[in-house]
Amino acid sequence: MEHAHSELVQILLDCAAACETCAAACLYEEDPAMMARCIETDRDCADICTLGARLLLRDSENANHFLTSCVEACRLCAEECKKHNNDHCRQCAEACDRCADACIDQHAEAVK
Questions:
Q1: Between 73 and which of 48, 53, 56, 65 could a Cys-Cys bridge form, CB atoms 3.0 to 4.6 Å apart?
Q2: Residue 98 class from Cβ within 10 Å (0-12 exposed, 13-18 middle, 19+ buried)?
Q3: What average pLDDT is seen over the chain?
Q4: What are the residue ranges of helices labelled H in the chain?
């Protein structure tokens, strides 16, 4: 059965996975302490995107409003990841930008 928001749900979950992967990889960088802010934004974004996907899947009346938080978390995470010259950070930033854009595109009225 196809859910009305299945494409956005998948983008949110892909973003969460990219963020978790980035956070884990940051721990193995030469200076993990230097990556602390990146790890924090990665983990926050992953949690927020996962919850956004869950709210959409259950057609929660809070889902559209919550997508504002998803956009903000994704933009913040992408901005932080772009400061680092690592493949995992680049991939995470791309996933976050794609996710923020998808939230805005598919729910423009809710996230303005």
A1: 48
A2: middle
A3: 91
A4: 6-26, 36-57, 63-81, 87-106, 108-111
